[in-house]
Amino acid sequence: MVDFEPKIIGFLCNWCSYAGADLAGVSRLQYPANLRVVRVMCSGRVDPTFVFKALSQGADGVLIAGCHPGDCHYTEGNYNTLKRYPLMMQMLEQFGVERERVRMEWISAAEGTIYADVVREFTETIRQLGPYKRRLVKGRDQVG
Amino acid sequence: MSRRITIDPITRLEGHGKIEIFLNDAGAVDDVYFQIPELRGFEKFCEGRPVEELPRIVSRICGV
Amino acid sequence: MAKLNLALYWAAACGGCDVAVLDVNEKILDIAAVANIVLWPVALDHKYADVAKMAPGSIDLCLFNGAIRNSENEQIARMLREKSQVLVAFGSCAISGGIPALANLKDRDDILRRVYLETPSTVNPDGVLPQTGCPTPVGDLHLPEFYDFVYSLDQVVEVDYYVPGCPPTPQRIWEVVQAVVSGNLPPRGATVGALDKSLCDECQRVKRDKKIKRFYRSHEIITDPELCLLEQGLLCMGPVTRGGCGTQCINANMPCRGCYGPLPGVTDQGAKYLSSIGAIMDARTPEEVDEIMQGIVDPAGTFYRFGMSTSLLKGAVKQ
Fold this sequence. Notes:
- The complex is a heterotrimer of chains A (144), B (64) and C (319).
- Chain A is α/β, with parallel strands linked by helices.
- Chain A has a single domain, classed as 3-Layer(aba) Sandwich (Rossmann fold), CATH 3.40.50.
- Chain A contains 4 helices and 4 strands; from the N terminus they run E-H-E-H-E-H-E-H.
- The model of chain A has no long low-confidence stretch (mean pLDDT 94).
- Chain B has 64 residues and is of the alpha+beta class.
- Chain B has one domain (3-58).
- Helices cover 14% and strands 28% of the residues of chain B.
- Chain B has 2 helices and 3 strands; from the N terminus they run βββαα.
- Chain B has helices at 42-45, 54-58, and strands spanning 3-7, 18-23, 29-35.
- In chain B, strands 1-2-3 form a 3-stranded antiparallel β-sheet, with no helix packed on it.
- The mean pLDDT of chain B is 94.
- Chain C has 319 residues and is α/β, with parallel strands linked by helices.
- Chain C has 3 domains: 4-99 and 152-182, NADH:ubiquinone oxidoreductase-like, 20kDa subunit (Rossmann fold); 108-147, no CATH class; 199-303, no CATH class.
- In chain C, 30% of the residues lie in helices and 14% in strands.
- Chain C contains 12 helices and 9 strands.
- Chain C has a 5-stranded parallel β-sheet, with helices on both faces.
- Chain C is globular and about 65 Å long.
- The chains are: A alpha/beta (144), B alpha+beta (64), C alpha/beta (319).
- Chains B and C meet through strand 1, strand 3 and helix 1 of B and helix 1 and helix 6 of C.
């Protein structure tokens, strides 16, 4: 697995985690470049469809990060994340996806170091797990 | 001359079936094979489903 | 006007869709008045060889039900595509895999082993598994290849229209036939015989605020016949499912399982349902969520009951 560079998609909420990532940047913290960030207005906007689509299109891991419970810019949004995540993990397990591949974290705008630590640790976890072997459906010409 | 008669598909029943009839030189039936070219695997994929859901799943074994 | 050539076929299916066509009752005579049926295994005696002799495009309408489970299903699908002007994916199995596609949660070899070796009623001391070719003293026999994935029809051939349902209701089937006969067809690729709004729009039950403290399995609760089943704690897929079925399951006090498929614009019905179920749990902490989740024993098999083939994740993988 030496040559494996994980592709990780990170859905970061605009108000906390994205600002946390910004802080990690301006603080010149070093962390792996394997995480591709998608900014969303709230972690509650992260429909499980996004996570499944990321995995089905080549991501090896997915990070969902939002404000700490109680700190949501929209009051309730991140509680939806909190409630969906365990159910999503239960379902992913039935699909043969390891629990470690999809991670939920609360990262505030002040937690640049935590953001860098999470990315570093998560990238290492995915590197250990290896690539996500998605179920490919053959094109119409190659069915069988 | 030996001949082979294929009935494919068997009709007016639920499911898929095929019959191969082999005739000998005299035109009499030498051998007959009845084949089921279909499998869906309910025996396996019902495993892990909640028991109360099975009436709504196994009713799709045959809907005729 | 010349009669239409009509074909009805079942691939990996149960025959329920064919029987649903017969459920139009005496109107079947009206269908017979405008159409020559050239293939319909459940009711008539045409053979594959008869269809193979027909000219390309000579079938006006083909209602194809069933998923693509093996190489025979695929060959017939390709043949009917070539011979048909209009190919309709008819019913949940043809559209999105349906019940047979639950097998995508399992491994091909595990399925064969379970069915032919391990089931208690099986006697197979030599451990024989189906082979695609088998020589006998009188001649060779052939069986189709059992694929490792259950495909929807449009994953194998191009499909012109989709008629959802497990099975589609007779009323909707009749509307589809009328549309074809009158030539009054929507743009290609359209879903016909279903509403563009969710089942909840059609459902007559009283709906209030959705906050769920506990999910019940169907044997754990006697439901109120007037109130929304989801609000009573049953996993009803009405919110993420197309209407058009006449809420038949709900009328029988059973929650919707989503056979009419996702709403327009939704790619993955199960993920959408997961999203909405998460949102209506009445919980604030992970512990409360865990407790509520006790009532959801099989999210993959329940949320993708009819749509595994076309789901984003497609099925289980071995990592």
